[in-house]
């Protein structure tokens, strides 16, 4: 499986607890007071044949907050919110949908957000 990877540290533009928009220089959400935690964003370019395999691999590595799949033009095709304990049977429908996307796209970009630290 051939993948190209790049990594960037970003500030999440929304509160993980309440969903309110947050500014990148805030330490705490002004709506609910929850700490604003920066995330590490990794991007992987994969062929459609390797899409499902790579997403499964990333989910099993752990510490994943969200997975975003984009097409060659950068258009978001699917967003998978990942919470603790959502691996296994609950992720199967997402993987089936990824298989359908893989049939339509030649090359995809997988964006993975992980909690920093």
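^ Assign residues to that structure.
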């Amino acid at each position: 499986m051939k993948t190209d990877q790049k990594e960037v540290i970003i500030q999440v533009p929304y509160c993980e607890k309440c969903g309110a928009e947050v500014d990148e220089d805030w330490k705490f959400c002004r709506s609910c007071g929850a700490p604003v935690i920066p995330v590490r964003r990794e991007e992987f370019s994969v062929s459609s044949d390797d899409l499902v395999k790579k997403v499964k691999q990333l989910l099993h590595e752990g510490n994943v907050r969200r997975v975003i799949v984009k097409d060659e033009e950068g258009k978001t095709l699917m967003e998978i919110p990942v919470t603790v304990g959502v691996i296994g049977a609950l992720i199967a429908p997402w993987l089936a949908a990824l298989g359908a996307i893989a049939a339509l796209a030649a090359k995809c970009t997988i964006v993975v957000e992980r909690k920093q630290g």
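The helical segments are 51-61, 92-104.
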